[in-house]
């Protein structure tokens, strides 16, 4: 497979990942992708699946002992940024 693919962005800012790339990298609609910027280069990286509950527990571990209010705990648990 050729390592260089040229794609054009739509007016809405969307880019279609060619099927041959999706197949090689096993990318499906539920796979998370991360953008990394280095200078004037933009890299798209396939994220590894994570156990979201374990990740959330690791994030929350120790928070209750940190004198958080109930409102602060509720905000943390309802945040879209948390797994």
From TrEMBL:
The keyword DNA-binding applies. The lineage of its organism: Bacteria, Bacillati, Cyanobacteriota, Cyanophyceae, Nostocales. It comes from Nostoc cf. commune SO-36. PROSITE patterns: SPOVT_ABRB (PS51740). This is SpoVT-AbrB domain-containing protein. Residues 4-49 form the SpoVT-AbrB domain. Pfam families: MazE_antitoxin (PF04014). The keyword DNA-binding applies. It comes from the Bacteria. Keywords: DNA-binding.
């Amino acid at each position: 497979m050729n390592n260089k693919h040229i794609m054009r962005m739509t007016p809405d800012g969307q880019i279609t990942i060619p099927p041959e790339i999706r197949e090689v990298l096993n990318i499906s609609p539920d796979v998370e992708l991360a953008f990394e910027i280095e200078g004037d280069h933009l890299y798209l990286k396939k994220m590894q699946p994570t156990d979201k509950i374990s990740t959330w527990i690791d994030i929350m571990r120790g928070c209750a002992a940190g004198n958080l209010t109930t409102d602060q705990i509720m905000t943390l648990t309802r945040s879209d940024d948390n797994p």
